[in-house]
User: What shape does this take?
Amino acid sequence: MRALKDLDLYSDPHFSIMTNSYKVGKNFRSVAITTSVLFALIALSQLVITENLSNAQGEQAAPGSVFKLARASIPIDIPMGKGYENGNDIFFIATDASDEKIAEQATKLLGFKVNFAPLLSQTPESARGQAYAFTNGVKGKGPFGFQIPVLAAKPGDAGYSPLLQINTVTWKEGASATELKSVEEIMAAQQNGSLTINKTGIVVNHPAIKWQGGAMKIRDDKNITDDSKYGPAQVLKIDTEKMVVTMVAHRGFGPDGKTIYYTVADATPEMPANMMGVTSVPFDEKLIGAPVAVDLFQFMNGMNGTGPMGFQAGIGAANPTDKNYSPMWKISFNKWKDPAKARILETVDDILFMQKSGMLTITPAMGGKHVVNCPFFDQSTVLEHMSKTQPIS
Assistant: This one.
């Protein structure tokens, strides 16, 4: 707020009128003085009111200050799937599939919306993990009603990726089917002629949540509010009995300004993965330059807000129902040349317009090697599965 000494009364037309009134005669002196004091107090009170409104309505303050979204962070319960990895249990979430029928089937099986993401089929071969799903044999809770799937790797292994290529395993007629718990056992059964393996082109996003000797980091502060910090972890609770993981869903924008929510499962390089408290997956770097890595814009300065860097929420280049959607995002950093002139941006077109006007720069994050696994969800899915066991305020 400006001090009284900073108020330029001499440039105020009212002051000129008062001065002229004073010059007419001494009889008007008291009126002129009273009037000048009155106008000064009015001007001062307007400044005080303006400042108080700005303080009370942070998001409507001068550009470059605060932009907070309501329900910016929500704890959601996501059902887990279970598989075997090298003879041990591994728990994961199923969020996306390149095949529409598989996405629909998984949605019905889990009771949670699994996105149809055809772009996942363009995942480079070298960036794919391997999963084996049984089409017959021992009855169980696998995707086809038989034993649970077998995964080739877990986080920390050189070949781990959350993007899994599905291989279907079928026992031959007359073979003695048994439950298999490792890739080695499957390959041995194939070698002796007991089963066949069909390599499909289907790729699914199944980020691991808990595995032999490890799990995603669990957040200490479980009271989620609009002011909760982005890190240092994304998981609130892992319940392997109820087969549910509670994660933080963050609010952001789709390319057209539509509200989306997303969870963060893994990332590369290691430094930002650790900062967010998610699994570090070097394999994710192999997605750079591939169509499966879609643009996601995060802000490095400007309005303080609920984004991962402490500024406004990010904007993705696809909604979860778009054909160009993928849960794998190539991060770019937006930076205002003059943070005091920052505006609220809600669409990709907003970003490109500000870049073209010279107000904003866009830089590939971490030398263009920053990829994050952030499955997107529409608002209705998040609200339907909002956690009933974790506090939110």
Notes: The first strand starts at residue 66 and ends at 67. Confidence is low (pLDDT under 50) at residues 1-61. The first helix runs from residue 13 to 24.
